[in-house]
Structures are given as structure tokens and as C-alpha cells.
Amino acid sequence: MSLNHPTSTTKQRRPDWAALAIAVVLAVIAAVIFFDVARVKGAAGYSQVGPATVPEWIAFGLIGLAVWTAIEAFRGEFPVRDRQELGPIVWVVAGLIAQMLLLNRAGFSIATGVLFALVAAGFGRRKLWLTIPIGIILCLCIWLIFAGLLQLSLPAGPLEHLFL
Amino acid sequence: MSTFEFLLQGLVAAMEPMNLLYALIGVTLGTAVGVLPGIGPALTVALLLPVTYRLDPTGSLIMFAGIYYGGMYGGSTTSILLNTPGESASIVTALEGNKMARAGRGGPALATSAIGSFVAGLIATLLLAFLAPYVVQIAIKFGPREYFALMVLAFVTVSSAFGDSALRGLTALFVGLAFSVVGIDQLTGQTRLAFGVPDLLDGIEVTTMAVAMFAIGETLFIAAQGMRGPETVEAVKGSVWMNAQDWARSWKPWLRGTVIGFPIGAMPAGGAEIGTFLSYATEKRLTKHPEEFGNGAIEGVAGPEAANNASAAGTLVPLLTLGLPTTATAAIMLAGFQQYGLQPGPLLFATNPQLVWGLIASLLIANGMLLVLNLPLIGLWVKLLTIPKPWLYSGILVFATLGTIGANPSVFELGMLLTFGLLGYVMRVFGYPIAPVVVGLILGPLAEQQLRRALAISQGDVTYLFTSPIAAVLFVVAALAFIVPLILRIRGRGEVLSQMAANED
Question: Which residues, if any, are the signal sequence (chain A) (predicted)?
Fold first, then answer.
């Protein structure tokens, strides 16, 4: 994707707002880096090379890339994106959040079983009254193998304590 | 001669019953997970890393080697039978292999890819064993600036040399580099970009990032495509064995594929897919049956599959001798080394030869096991392809979070998993590559150390970096690897695309 490549700018003259947003995010990350490493600049030694040096180089790189992205966004050179369905994403993300919230209260099996069921729901299996129990039983088996045999430290809850 | 002795010693170590068992578990898990559609070797290795947490370093790395080779094998099965390659390096295999499967010649296609992978893996692993000591000899002479130059070269080839956009590759790399400076600075002990969060002081876990980007990002991406038409799995009809003509047409492509694939993997030249494309083009030019190309030519499966596996062994050369990962899979393997406090590189050959040579020897053994495992058990792997999507992806997420919880049972780590998963999803939607993020994250701190050492020697004079001949050459190669593809994309980009398009349905 070169900058002097006029043929690919045919489809749209409007700027690509999503791509512009990416450029802004890159610039913001660069700004955060500059802001944060300003604290540790004093630690640079005699050679003027310290903990702030490399982060600053990276931040400069990010700014350059932000500008380049913005240029491609205005020229409409970003690839065409397929339509994304939000529903399934909400299910999967909800599953991950549910697991996060439940993990330390209900233990590994229940939390991960709920995750299992919600992800399956995201892919079209919506019978939660069936999939949640299946998921919990499956995850209990996994817990017994990994926490019991392989000694991984997976949080235990009421269900797991039945087996301890 | 000493190489041979070391290799024999390694073989003896790898032949210990426990190590054989680890290798067997590794190749079985690697193949099983690698066969699953949408899961490439990088994710296979990242998902299975936690399984090895409680093993000793040798056993864990041996299992790892098996997982790596198994994942490569599994990917080819997927692409032949499903036409949706689990990994980019199998795209070419899908072109001819899937056509063969549809023509009822799935068995020979799988066989030539399995035997070709075996032949290539065997030759390439031996090349690795005999080449590594020489690279180590050179690597000992490397100072900080040479290492830094080498890493810059790796950054360029991973991010911008290949793939369809230098901008998006570089952006992915710099996102990874930005994440890599989070935590306590290794040289001064200063905290950077941790924002007072204690969980961030140790930096961002490479495995968390890799699992999130590859597993969760991919799951979200597939979910967001909605219910598009289901893929059909081609049944394996007839014999798995190849007839005399298949053998006659396969053995030369295997050897040519190995010769093409190994150097490409061994040089810091990016992923295995380049070798597979080159091998495919070579076979297409040399074949006596040009009319079959595009309709299921066995040479078009044999060559690229051999190249694929040869370059998989090739990437271990820079990884083991220089500590330089040139693919996402190698980056995660480096994380596997680091969890035991081992830093691959010339020193590891001196301080821990049993481990290095045991690993190389176990690659040979894993390779043999895979041949045995793949040909007779192919029916079992095919069954794995028929797992319905909801259960497949639920299972993937269960294992993805299991690994993270097992490594660090904290809600914060799961939050990172979700955040990076969403990042991986957004990057996929906009066509950003994922591998440069992972490579940037793991190689960033190493490159920073070398750079700061070099600049400390020169008291801040940046020109010092370019005044060593080796470093200068490496920087020039890196610059060429950046500029030449930019020019090629303007001129020759359509050619590759049309070649791919011509073989589509």
C-alpha cells in the first residue's frame, strides 16, 4: 500500500471514519507513553540513554504510523470490511465477563460452565437450561484433571469442595 | 564430529521412557488441536503451554516440540479436507489438496502431505542439528549492536515485508512494542506505564496476550460473521495409501520443498507461507502434468507441505542459536523457555547442552511418531473436523481461560484476556496481522536491552550502531526488506492475488 498509488482510491472519496479513529487511538497511545515516561527521564545516566529512551522512540513511531493511517483513511485505502453481527459478540463477551465475576465466588466449574453456555449461545445454541449444566459438568471434569492431576491452581468453589 | 556425539547423547536422553511419553502426548495434543479449524500452530502452542507448567524444563520443551510439529501436521489435514486452512502456511495445500479430496483422492493427498512432512522434517531437523553449532560460533562474536540489528531485521520481516500492507504490519508491531515496555524496566528498576497497578509491574504476559489475540479474537471474529453457509468436510474415500505413480510424482517435490523451505525458515524472513508459495510455483513450472494444476495435482500438495515443515524446523535455528523468534509460534516457544528462566542463544548451548540437544533429538522422534500417528489414525482426526461450531468455540474459550487462570488465577488477568481479545477482534476486522504484536511484545524488551547496552558503550552516540560491518549489513538488509516489498506491492501485487483467485471456485 504505497502512498502514491492513485488507482485504489476510486471507490469512495469520503474519509474512512473508523480508520481515522484508529489513527487517533495510535496518537493517544503515543501521548500516554510520552506523559508516563516523563517521570523517569531523570534516571537517564551519563550517556543520556535511560528507561525513557526506547518508549519515546516507540511513541515517535506510533505518531508516524498515526499520520500514515490518517492519510490512508482520507484516501479511502483501507480494505473493505465485511458486515459484523454484534449479537454473537455480546454473548461471547457476556460469557467472559460472567466468568470473571463468578470465578472467585462460585469456583472454576460454575464460572467456566456459564462461559461455555454463553459462547455456545453466541453461536446459536440458545437452550441455556441445557447448556449451562452440560458446561458445568464438563468444567468439573476439567477441574478434576487439571487441578487434581496436573496441580494447576484453579479456584475451588462449593462444587469443587465436594471432591476435596 | 562433536555435533554427531551431541546428537547421539540427545537421542539417548530423548529416548528415556518419560521423555518418549511427553513427546507422544505432545504430538497427539498438537495434532488434535491443530486439526481443529481456525487453530494454527501458534495458538496450539499457546493453548497447551499451561499443560506443561508442572513438568521439568526438558520434559516440557520436548512436549512442546511435539506440539509444534503436531500442530503443523494437523493444519494440513484441515486444509485438505475442509478448504479452510487452520494456518496461513497451509493455504497453498488447500489449493490442490482440497481439489484432490473432492475428486475422491483425499487419501493420497493426506498421505503425500504426511510422508512429505516427515521427509522434510527429518532432513530439516538434521540440517538444524548440523547448522546450529556454526551459527553459535558466529553468534558468540555478536555484540549488543549486532543483536539489535538482527532484531530490527526480524521486526521488519515479521511486520512489513510480507502480508498485504506495510502500514498495518508496522502498526501491529508498534502496538506490540508499546505493550512490551509496560512494567519494571530491567536495567534501572523504574516502573513504566503500569499506572500504579501492581499486576502490571511484571509486564504483560506473552501467553495471555497470544491466547487472547489468537483464541478470543478469532472466536469473536468467527461469531461476528453470523451463520454463513456451513463448510463441507470431504470424506476420505478409498485407500489412504499412495500408488506407484503417486510416489514417483511426490518424492522430488518433497526434496525440492525441503530445500526451498528450510533456508526461508532459518533466515529471519518471516513466516512459513513464503516457502510454500515458492514451492508451489516451482512445482507448477516443473511438472509434467500442468493440466492437473488447479484440479488437484499431487505435486502441488507434496512440495508445499514439505516446504512448510522444513521451514518450521528452520525457524528453530535462529530461535535456539540466537534467541530470535521469527514467527508467532517461535515467539510463544521463547515464552515457554523463559518460564523456566532459560534464554535460548549461544550460551544455552554451552551451559545446558543436554537440554538443547535433547530437544533437537526429540524433534526427530516426534517427527517419526507423527507419521505413525497420522496415517492410520486419519479417520479419528477427520471426526474432530465435524465438531459443530458452537461446541468447538465454547471448548476453545474454556481452554483459553483455563490456561490463563492456571498461570495466574486473578480476575485482573481475565480482564486482560478479554481486553486483548477485543483488540484482536478489531484488528482482524480491519485486516491487521496478529503475529507482529506477539513478536513485538516478546522481542521488544530483548531489543531494548541490546540497544541500551550498545548506546551505553558509545555514550549515547547513535552512529555507533552502524559502524560494525555485521550490524551495518543487517541494517541494510532490514531496509531492503522494508523498501523492496513496498515497490513490489505497487507492481506485482495483483499477480499473486490473481494466482490465488484463479484457483478459487
Answer: none
Cell 474454556 -> residue: B398
From B272, B394, B373, B414, select the one nearest B330 (Cα to Cα): B272
Position A119 scores a pLDDT of: 93
- At residue A138, the pLDDT reads 93
Assembly ipTM: 0.89
What does A61-101 look like in DSSP terms, one character per residue? HHHHHHHHHHHHHHHT-SPPPPP--HHHHHHHHHHHHHHHH
State how many domains chain B has.
Answer: 1
Residue B233 corresponds to which cell in the numbers above? 468436510
Answer yes or no: are the C-beta atoms of B139 and B321 closer than 8 Å: yes
CB contact under 8 A, A86 and B224: yes
pLDDT at B461: 84
Phi and psi angles of residue B184, each rounded to the nearest 5 degrees, phi first: -80, 130
B192: which strand partners?
B183
CB contact under 8 A, B406 and A18: no
**Taking the mean position of all CA atoms in its chain, how far away is CA B474?**
23
Q: Is B97 helix (H, G, I), strand (E, B) or coil?
A: helix
Domain ranges of chain A: 6-75, 86-161
> Which grid cell sits at B98?
482440497
DSSP code of B159? I
B67 within 8 A of B39, measured Cβ to Cβ: no
CB A58 within 8 A of CB B174: yes
Q: Would you call B397 and A96 a contact, using CB atoms and an 8 Å cutoff? A: yes
Matching residue, cell 521488519: B156
Give the type of residue at A159: L
In the predicted model, residues of chain A with pLDDT beneath 70 are 1-13, 42-47, 164
Which residue has cell 522481542?
A: B443
Q: State how far the Cα of B135 lies from the Cα of B66, in Å rounded to an integer.
A: 24
d(CA B389, CA A123) in angstroms, rounded, equals 7
> What pLDDT score does A164 carry?
67
pLDDT < 50 stretches in chain B: 1, 86, 494-495, 497-505
Distances in Å between the alpha carbon of B429 and those of A85, B159, B436? 12, 18, 16
Which residue of B lies nearest to A134 if distances are taken between CA atoms? B391
> Shortest CA distance to B436 belongs to which of B448, B444, B445?
B444
B40: Cβ–Cβ under 8 A, 6 or more apart, which residues? B34, B71, B75, B86, B87, B88, B89, B214, B329
Nearest CA in chain B to A136: B398
Question: Distance between CA B303 and CA B98 in Å, rounded?
Answer: 15
Q: What are phi and psi of B463, to 5 degrees?
A: -65, -20
Contact B167, A72 (CB under 8 A): yes
What pLDDT is stored for residue A60 in this prediction?
95
The residue of chain B nearest to residue A151, with distances taken between CA atoms, is B54
Alpha carbon distance A58, A53 (integer Å): 9
What the block records as the C-alpha cell of B250 is: 511426490
**Which of B178, B219, B398 is nearest residue A116 as measured by Cβ atoms?**
B398
Full DSSP string of B203-268: ---HHHHHHIIIIIHHHHHHHHT-SPPPPPPPP--S-SS--HHHHHHHHHHHHHHHHHHHHHHHTT
Instruction: Determine the structural domain holding residue B22 and report its residue range.
Output: 2-502
Tell if the CB–CB gap between B177 and A61 is shorter than 8 Å: yes
DSSP 8-state class, residue B287: -
User: Residue B226 is which amino acid?
Assistant: G
DSSP string covering B293-337, please? TTS--THHHHHHHHHHHHHHHHTHHHHHHH----SHHHHHHHHHH
